[in-house]
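Q: What structure does this chain adopt?
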Amino acid sequence: MNTKRDILQVEDLTKTYGRGANRTEALKGISFRVLEGEFLGIMGASGSGKTTLLNCIAAMLKPASGKILLRGQDISGFRGDRLAAYRGRSIGYLFQEFELLDNLTARENITLPLALRGVTAGQAERELQTVAALLDIAQILDQFPSQMSGGQKQRAAAARALISDPDLLLADEPTGALDSRNSRVLLDRLAEVNRVRNKTIVMVTHDAGAASYCSRILFIQDGQLFHELRRNVLSEPREAFYERIVTVIAQLGGGSAHVL
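A:
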């Protein structure tokens, strides 16, 4: 019996840029739900609306209409301290280009969200050691970003996004700046975080290999949902899921929505 509950609901979401002849509809009434503990991938061509969607969920952009509910709470009504708490504690955001502060060590970068909340040094260190072990970066905590490889930087950035134990980890093309080996290391670690800590992850990616780590994928085309793929994690090898993803990518030339 599946007892998992919805953690995120996106209802008829729209987003437009510009006006008049320059008006662009980035999102056209997208609706979907995310289960607690799910690893959801969002795929689509450049300009399809996938990053706009992620940034609306992160409350970095305000949609034109529709609702985004986290644990039943409509985030459009959040203001001031409540909005800041949502951005700082309810979600963690993993950027493509790391976004680490060059003058801080990995330890200082990772614990910065806790320092801003006034968490004690002892508690911050305990949380740091937990996420550092999960992401295999204990050996680089005293290094500055200039001393780290790209893969180490991204895992440090992932630790920073996770250290506040957010409800959602949002990842925008997290492997886009990494080579294939470091991409696999990062994705293996994120999959472990999802499995061991039941962390809900929503990841935007254009890479079928990265997407194959997910349990479900939404394909977006021209601001609308086009396809949905589900993986039976217990019985379907990741390699087989990858082949199904590639097939859908090849079909992204038109047609109505399907569930494959």
